[in-house]
Amino acid sequence: MYEHQTYEAILGRMLARVPDDVDKREGSIIFDALAPAAAELAQMYAEIEINNDLSYADTSSDEYLERRTSEFGVHRRPATKARRKGLFRGKEDVPVNVPIGSRFSIGELTYVTVSKVATGSFVLESETVGVVGNQHYGEMLPIDYIDGLVSVELMEVLVPGEDEESDDELRKRYLTTINEQPFGGNLADYKAKISAIPGIGGTKVVPAWAGGGTVKCTIIASDYSAPSATLIDEVQAVIDPQVNQGQGLGLAPIGHVVTINGVTNVEVNVTTTLTLAQGITPGMVQSEVEAAVEAYLLSLRTTWKDQIALTVRISQIEARLLNVSGVVDINGTTLNGTASNLELEAEQIPVSGTVTIHV
Question: Which top-rank group of organisms is this from (predicted)?
């Protein structure tokens, strides 16, 4: 808006107001008197431009975006802690129990036991917020001595930890709230309420799926994987507890019987024939090829909630593999043994299976 209000333009206008019989050349008294004022005015216009952008949701950022969205009840989602399954063993690999509140370390992270699932199986919560709590697996070390405990293993993610919501995510959610008007159990209302639950990456809502008054909501975890049974149960309890379903004991309206499902994984096994550069062997590109396939499948999973159903396309995989260093050409690519695109159902997501390279 004010990009034309430069130092040169402002100084030129100021000098134009000075009579021509006065020396206005650079270095003259009048020039040196006006130049600092022109520089300050140019800076002022730049700051006006910045403040103008901060006043609108589509160009705002940081705390100013939060102040804008909070006017409509949309607040930035904070980072959350991951909850994981932990297995505890004593002598001869016998399951043992540990006190609630016991702390264990793996790498630079610390987890604490928060609840018991079964003998030797506990829910662990990361003390560090964010997605970093989802990443480590394997042997853990107790921070304090626990009698009879021999080994601790950090297992699958039950509820993924999430980083603080980004500006882009907050802006998108704000615009969705304004434009779709979630209210009283409509589709937008279910999507907004379920997506606000920690650990949820998105949902698809099917109204009247088993007759009038029934609603099916299929969820994907915030790390774009299939949700754990623990997460599904938590969402069910928040939206419409299974005890006395349809009675309005959760966030769902009275009379709505809501069923929460999770997406299901479909393994994608890729077989392809590569032409490699001289001196390059299949083993040298295997890991990069696998990473390229996984990156593509992850990109599909991130769009699952906005698509009717996902399609894994051979052309997209081949385009990415051609970007792998050492790959000259590619042909004969198949998905799960078939030389055609893989069409998934509405509640399915693709995950990496095997990647077989022929030369």
Answer: Bacteria
